[in-house]
Amino acid sequence: xxxxxxxxxxxxxxxxxxxxxxxxxxxxxxxxxxxxxxxxxxxxxxxxxxxxxxxxxxxxxxxxxxxxxxxxxxxxxxxxxxxxxxxxxxxxxxxxxxxxxxxxxxxxxxxxxxxxxxxxxxxxxxxxxxxxxxxxxxxxxxxxxxxxxxxxxxxxxxxxxxxxxxxxxxxxxxxxxxxxxxxxxxxxxxxxxxxxxxxxxxxxxxxxxxxxxxxxxxxxxxxxxxxxxxxxxxxxxxxxxxxxxxxxxxxxxxxxxxxxxxxxxxxxxxxxxxxxxxxxxxxxxxxxxxxxxxxxxxxxxxxxxxxxxxxxxxxxxxxxxxxxxxxxxxxxxxxxxxxxxxxxxxxxxxxxxxxxxxxxxxxxxxxxxxxxxxxxxxxxxxxxxxxxxxxxxxxxxxxxxxxxxxxxxxxxxxxxxxxxxxxxxxxxxxxxxxxxxxxxxxxxxxxxxxxxxxxxxxxxxxxxxxxxxxxxxxxxxxxxxxxxxxxxxxxxxxxxxxxxxxxxxxxxxxxxxxxxxxxxxxxxxxxxxxxxx
Length: 533
Fold this sequence. Notes:
alpha/beta; 2 domains; four-stranded mixed sheet; about 10% strand
């Protein structure tokens, strides 16, 4: 049934696009093929060339607007001519109309690895035939055709090692590469440029603003720095986002019919809270074994199954962070927000210890939700892809708020994400900055939309899930207390798992090691200040 619904919805979507925009709008498949060599795909050293149309005085780098659009002058439009009201990604980006890269080849190095560890080379180029892969080739072909360039992927088990060798040797073949786990080493190694030096406008909507705000950090001279980026081409930052999905059959029987809730409407109205979540978990729990307890191994139906990582999801859901960045300055906000954190941990412990919930291993979580033995499951979004062939229909929702007064939903991104960096071996920064801006902008319109459609219609089977995905992706958080210094987050999550709230003592103990001279912040600022890039 799920696959039938997905195919039906996909047909309707394609028909709608053909009727409104013209089926011949899409560009042909990419003009470059994935190189045969899986490790090193580019030979020959790059030489600095002026590849942009700099002799055209009308050229501008950015539009200066949050969402550049192209419009048609309605005073000159024939009555039957459709009016373009929004940029669709298949024409030149406003402000970049005169860009001509003059045949330049841009090589992006991506990580190739097993399925579980989130490869990134396939988000740069892939020969697969699914909708997401097709959209990736469409993006590449569109950029190549519009701006006269070539996009190539360099697939490697360790893109960072390739970059390090090039920086050391003074040679260059790689223009940009994925940086696994996005740790502080990307900023302090000296191998990567401060991305602000490339002239990229990181206020544009195709850049994750929460990531930009978290990792735009001033060095000791007061210069803004950011050494890795997450744009709408960084698909692992989508698939590594921690959220909640639910078995629709269990939901309809245990919740919709008995409690009368419309879970999607609760989310839209901002009323999807931890209290309502716990109410649903308790209502769905069924003691099939009859032994007055709940266990997946005994065939019971659980209200909520999760791995131990869901403790992180619980405390991140409030929007509080251990470390934040305020006007480019790192701040140990766990100290100033101690009272809020203490209340949060108490509530999280209460939610975590709900009898109708159980912590399972990765495989068991998927089996419980696909087998109808659980209402809710907490996991990364990529798990929906791994369950796509299961005979189950899933829905998707954000993590609940802690109260209706909380402004936004909030979700953490697992540290297996890959952000992107530009190595210091690159010579022509102006050209590189323009290419990256275009790569991100066209990815937003062509790739992100296809990714959301695939996950919502094919993996979940409904339009509501597409709306939920937008909410989830727009509320991702990137706490440096996790992605840069994950010991801190691990210690906070352990309090929830153990049911012991000693946050006040913990924050007092950790304060010196974080903020004092020679502490985490001090060493980091010294590291980026010593960078000459």
